[in-house]
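note to self — DONT lose this again. spent like an hour looking for the file last time. sequence + predicted structure for the chain T wanted, 213 res
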Amino acid sequence: MPLNEKKYRIEPIVDLLSGEAIGQELLAGNAACPKWNESEWRDWYQFLAREIPVLLSNLSGFIFLNLHGHQFLDEQISDSVESLHPFSDRIVLEWTEYQHKEEKLSAITDKVHHFKNIGFPIAIDDIGSGGGVDGLGRAMAINASFCKIDGPYFQTIRDKGPEYFRGLCHHLSYHGARVIVEWIETEADYRLALSAGAKYGQGWFWSNLRQKK
């Protein structure tokens, strides 16, 4: 697919207290993540190396950019992301959950540390997920700037009250991370995340408001 045909969407990440967006997550595809092959994903990050500087001139706050472990280790993708170094203070690299071989974990962690050391904030995705690679362990290994509570996990505790995951939010915050809760869809979801101690939220609750505007 030609680079100029790459489609994406952005979802706001919002301060739960002020209601102000602190950034946007940039997601591939119009409505869902595309099923691209390795070459197409390399094209995608090459495209973003050009597109993100333009977006940053028109958007405030951070851009959250997803990469899974194998993408961090891919030389072409890594080079495309590293070319964004002049803007690193506004680009959060979000290490997504992925099923990779255990022997690769150390190499992936080293690569994520490299990006952190040259100025990119790091976010850990899908903490609390029942599958994939342990998010809490990754968060502690990296000392991430942001930690994102898994959306499906959050929705399973809707009826259990904030105490059910307040300890997780406080644990992550204690180690310096700012906690983001995914899949907030309703006013009740918003109040639950806030009362549990999360700082930020993301989900249809705000995306829907943006579309209505």
